[in-house]
Hints:
By secondary structure, this protein is mostly helical. It has 9 helices and 5 strands, in the order ββααααααβααββα. Helix 6 packs across helix 8.
Amino acid sequence: MAATVSTPVFEGxxxxxxxxxxSHEVELYDIPLAALVDAFVAEVAGWESVDLHTLSxxxxxxxxxxxxxxxxxxxxxxxxxxDEELVGWExxxxxxxxxxxxxxxxxxxxxxxxxxERAARSVPRSxxxxxxxVVHAPDLLEGVIPEDLADAxxxxxxxxxxxLVDLYHVTVDTVTVADAVTELARRLPSMGGKVTFHSxxxxxxxxxxxxxRFLALLELCKQGRxxxxxxxxxxxxEVGWVPDAxxxxxxxxxxxxEYEG
Length: 261
């Protein structure tokens, strides 16, 4: 919509006012520009939403009227034709329109260049189906009756039993390093001399029990109650009880506590 203004000599669209001033049908001196702007501001205050197009149009026309009136009010040459004053504004608007048009064509050319570059990376296929070849998609509901849908719904919404985890393969080992240390501290002093690790574990059947016995030997060695010797690389480990070593297991040993439980 065009902005409307009301002046003592004109009432109507502001763009029509500029045309009438240009055609000398309305005298520019008779237009109070301050009242003109105040009236437009009052009109803008009553808008439900701001129309930027109408607002910018009024600002341009008001600027043209202010410049024309200021030139006539300021001292200067009196032989200036008002038509010549508006020529510069018309040429400016024409140049601006051409610049915008050139920008639009340049943007369109860039877009076409991008599309052409993308299309150049694709190769059309030279072989394909015959023109009369038609692919018929299978009917997924062929042969399905309402009773089948009802059964499917009942199966989908039926309450399912809670899943059970089968733990038959899980074994619980009750042997601890502390128990193995106590056992070895009781057995080794009575065995006399050095014994091999193999002889200490030959009666064991599970791997975890053998590992626990080995950790118990390391704990006893750390306490200084046994000596460990291996004659050659990958040879059998020989265990010897240190004479006068205590057979009681001390309470609170860090290594034992770490592996218990």
